[in-house]
Design brief:
Helix content: 40-55%
Distance between the termini: 26 Å
Radius of gyration: 27 Å
Mean pLDDT: 87
């Protein structure tokens, strides 16, 4: 209540009404409008209403976040929701004695402890989880499969072990005493004993890559401005991308913003053992931008191209946003994924025929095994041949397209494509393009411009890896 009263949204009539409407949508239940001159009694009614609905307090904060984004009020409310849910999970047990103990635990290994306690289901912690106490509260709201120790209790067991290693047995005993009592109340004493006596081997590095998706969406009002959104995906058990902040930038500011974003993500993933792939979701006018050659460490005397550290592919924003194109996209992707050796590329060879692009689209749609389109020209920001070829491919659902960023008639490009698309199937297109990029990198900054690997572009669009939907506008 005190925190909500400090919100600018709550204190302004128009914003307050917008928040109330969004909250009602989130709760799927009506919320009484503000109808008096006293704010606190109305807020009390709203909060009480939310506590009566499952996940209601989270709905309250989430709806306020839609209006205020990452405001001070929102940042202060999320830990309170975690604490409320933790008290509820532990049947109103007194958690007070845990707070000073957990708050004194060093925070350096919290992410690794969280992944281990949740058996890797929780890959990242929200920004408000800065102490072991806040992590414990957060994990209390996480579900656990039947027959598995709740992750919050597993986290306490790990924290107790850490205190013993630091020579603080008294602190460890506080956590263990709480776990023993709680295990009896919840009927999980056997699971706690199994956890404490199990050998936890360091898991082998996952073969499932982590992904950083970066999307550039043109501003519909002001030219040369874009909304940069991103999603982080490191869950090896399934596709559960974590959405990051969206920022509005000019076209010239995009490379530097991407550099900062990658640096921030690398800090979050410092102990990640999986390979990382960068995917750029680009609009028409940026589709030919050499994003894989944008830099890291740009403030040093020798910046590092992104292609040196990551596989990089581009994706189509227009296709992602146009659901009418998705059915053929899914069909051709299944063909590429399940029967790569039975799939083949299609070379675009324009003729002096006004109906060529219609026939290209027709051929791609009729040939279900044609899953990769080789462009005859790079796609520009106009309505030229390259862009028309891309449009035909998008409409036909072609998931992969390859081109030379400057000159698709270059003999070196033709030879490279012949090797990339050889008869071993099309299941490893990105790896083969990456091989040519590495050959260019081996020549160094003074020589890579003359190598075809410097100019190879690949669009590789997986319809099963879509960004999570945004919240209400």
């Amino acid at each position: 209540m005190d925190t909500l009263q400090g919100s600018a949204t709550v204190n302004q009539a128009g914003s307050r009404e917008l928040w109330r409407e969004i909250l009602a949508d989130e709760l799927d239940s009506p919320v009484e409008p503000f109808g008096s001159d006293r704010l606190r009694p109305w807020l009390l009614h709203v909060v009480k209403r939310c506590t009566e609905v499952g996940d209601g307090l989270a709905c309250l904060v989430r709806s306020l976040e839609y209006v205020e984004q990452q405001s001070v009020t929102v940042a202060a409310l999320w830990p309170l929701v975690d604490e409320w849910e933790a008290v509820d999970f532990f049947n109103h047990a007194d958690l007070g004695e845990l707070r000073p103990v957990l708050s004194s635990l060093p925070s350096s290994d919290l992410a690794a402890m969280t992944r281990r306690a949740s058996r890797s289901r929780v890959q990242e912690l929200p920004v408000w989880c800065q102490t072991a106490w806040q992590v414990f509260l957060r994990l209390a709201g996480e579900n656990a499969p039947v027959g598995e120790l709740p992750p919050s209790m597993a986290f306490l067991a790990l924290a107790a072990d850490r205190f013993v290693e630091e020579g603080r047995p008294d602190a460890a005993e506080v956590l263990r005493r709480f776990n023993r009592a709680t295990a009896t109340d919840l009927g999980v004493a056997d699971l706690l004993a199994d956890w404490q006596h199990s050998e936890f081997l360091q898991p082998a590095p996952s073969l499932v890559p982590a992904y950083l998706l970066m999307q550039f969406e043109p501003d519909r009002v002001e030219a040369n401005h874009y909304h940069l959104s991103h999603w982080r995906q490191s869950d090896s058990e399934g596709w559960h991308p974590v959405r990051g902040e969206t920022v509005r930038l000019t076209r010239e500011e995009l490379p530097a913003a991407v550099e900062r974003l990658i640096e921030d993500v690398e800090e979050k993933w410092a102990d990640l053992r999986q390979p990382v792939i960068l995917e750029f979701v680009l609009p028409w006018e940026l589709l030919n931008e050499p994003v894989e050659w944008w830099s890291k460490e740009s403030d040093s005397s020798s910046p590092t191209p992104l292609a040196l550290d990551y596989p990089v592919v581009v994706r189509s924003l227009e296709r992602l946003q146009r659901a009418a194109w998705h059915r053929p996209w899914h069909n051709k992707w299944r063909q590429l994924r399940e029967r790569p050796a039975d799939s083949h590329p299609h070379w675009s060879r324009p003729e002096e025929d006004g109906a060529y692009f219609f026939h290209l689209e027709r051929e791609l749609k009729e040939d279900l095994r044609a899953v990769c389109l080789v462009l005859s020209e790079p796609p520009g920001d106009d309505s030229g041949t390259g862009r028309s070829e891309v449009l035909a491919g998008l409409r036909a659902g072609v998931p992969a397209m390859i081109w030379h960023r400057n000159d698709c008639s270059d003999p070196a490009f033709q030879d490279a494509i012949g090797e990339i698309l050889e008869d071993r199937g099309l299941g490893s297109l990105a790896e083969r393009v990456g091989k040519w990029r590495k050959e260019a990198l081996a020549l160094g900054p003074g020589g890579w411009g003359q190598h075809v690997g410097r100019h190879l572009a690949i669009l590789l669009d997986d319809p099963e890896r879509k960004p999570s939907p945004p919240g209400p506008a």
